[in-house]
Amino acid sequence: MEISALTRSVVKSNHALICPDGHVNSVIPGWTNCKTNVLINEQMGAGLCQALITMEAEGVVSGKTAVSQLFFYVIEGICTVNDTLLSAGQFVYFPPGENYEIKGASAGTKLLSFHKVYEPLEGYPTPKLFFGDSAKIPGPAFLGDPALRLQVLLPEDLSFDMAVNIFTYDPGGHLPFVETHVMEHGLLYLQGQGVYMLNHEWYPVKKGDAIWMAPYCQQWFTAMGKEPAVYIYYKNVNRFPSPI
Ligand SMILES: NC(=O)N[C@@H](O)C(=O)O
């Protein structure tokens, strides 16, 4: 019998672990016949918003991006995005000021979204609408370790101020050192399990869990179990560390 008073979820000043047992849905204007869980948000101290959307067959996720850019990744199922058919592992990037409409989903289609206020960079155009397929993006060894493979989903040019990557760890694979960096992360586990060290606290994690890491939140991860651990994560990139 599950003890309803217990959860693995934690929300701390510089990190959070959000587990499915604590999900409560929000109503988002223009997002109808779907369940939306806002996993990470400015309200917890983050510089990004991350949501999990489960669509019903007649679900519609539509609107217009204003100051923020919006990235959608199809976790499972199919849907059409601005009339382009997307299935699991495929994604779309909407720059600020763009209309978006997601519909025609198979019931239960799951989408992950990352939202970030776009920081223009002098001399660089605002990025354009962009569709992609993670199955077509190579995952070279991370820092020479073949047990870790990193796929970079968005172009690495300076017009982009956010990155979305997929990190795959074979069982036993681990980050080569404890990272302490200015960039922030929001992530979601797509597969597997492991242990994440955040700010010197240790958390067993698994598929479906989301994690927020504030700037300088010390981080290290190792995968455990019988299958590779896979997470998709957001990172702010390519901008001056502080206003100049
Ligand atoms: N935590 C984690 O995966 N971090 C790094 O790989 C990164 O900063 O890209």
Automatic annotation (TrEMBL):
It holds the Pfam family Cupin_2. Its EC number is 3.5.3.26. GO terms for molecular function: ureidoglycine aminohydrolase activity. Residues 166-232 form the Cupin type-2 domain. The keyword Acetylation does not apply. It is an enzyme of class 3 (hydrolase). InterPro entries: Cupin_2, RmlC-like_jellyroll, RmlC_Cupin_sf, UGHY, UGlyAH_cupin_C. Keywords: Hydrolase. This is (S)-ureidoglycine aminohydrolase. It comes from Chitinophaga sancti.
